[in-house]
């Protein structure tokens, strides 16, 4: 009987130790997965100071009553712009110049001239036209509102 008693006690002790060990490991895993560091927004690197944003951007923007608007935006290093929009199948052309205003911590350019008042999000080799509220245009044609750097 003593021969059976010792292995039984040993088995019970091992089972207890393994259960206790799992409980402690679970607590350790939960504590490790709980975020304790605050995520900080990097405002030192923006489109304005990190990208080669100056240059010529072109694209054909959708038009409600014509095939499209051939648009050219030139952003100059001295923070001025030139804007040209030619309505296809029409005899209409809009040209404007002015100074660039930076918004949204340097990620958006605001082109405000005599006739023009529009915003573009500055991306890697592209300008993304924003709506009147300054938000990206959404929907199936959203990629048509991109001007590509030439």
TrEMBL record:
**So which domain of life are we looking at?**
Bacteria
Look up keyword Signal and say if it applies: yes
Q: Where is the signal peptide?
A: 1-23
- Alphabetic keyword roster: Signal
One Pfam family name is NlpE
* Gene3D superfamilies linked to this entry: 2.40.128.640
- The name this protein goes by in its record: Copper resistance protein NlpE
Q: Which organism is it from?
A: Sphingobacterium pedocola
Give the lineage: Bacteria, Pseudomonadati, Bacteroidota, Sphingobacteriia, Sphingobacteriales
């Amino acid at each position: 009987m003593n021969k059976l008693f010792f292995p039984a006690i040993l088995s019970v002790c091992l089972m207890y130790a393994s259960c206790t060990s799992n409980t402690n490991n679970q607590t350790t895993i939960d504590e490790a997965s709980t975020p304790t560091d605050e995520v900080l927004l990097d405002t030192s690197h923006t489109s304005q100071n990190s990208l080669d944003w100056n240059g010529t951007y072109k694209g054909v923007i959708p038009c409600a009553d014509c095939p499209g608007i051939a648009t050219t935006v030139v952003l100059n290093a001295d923070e001025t712009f030139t804007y040209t929009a030619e309505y296809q199948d029409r005899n209409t052309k809009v040209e404007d110049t002015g100074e660039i205003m930076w918004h949204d911590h340097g990620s958006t350019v605001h082109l405000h001239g005599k006739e023009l008042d529009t915003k573009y999000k500055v991306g890697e080799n592209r300008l993304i036209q924003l709506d009147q509220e300054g938000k990206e245009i959404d929907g199936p044609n959203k990629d048509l509102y991109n001007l590509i750097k030439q």
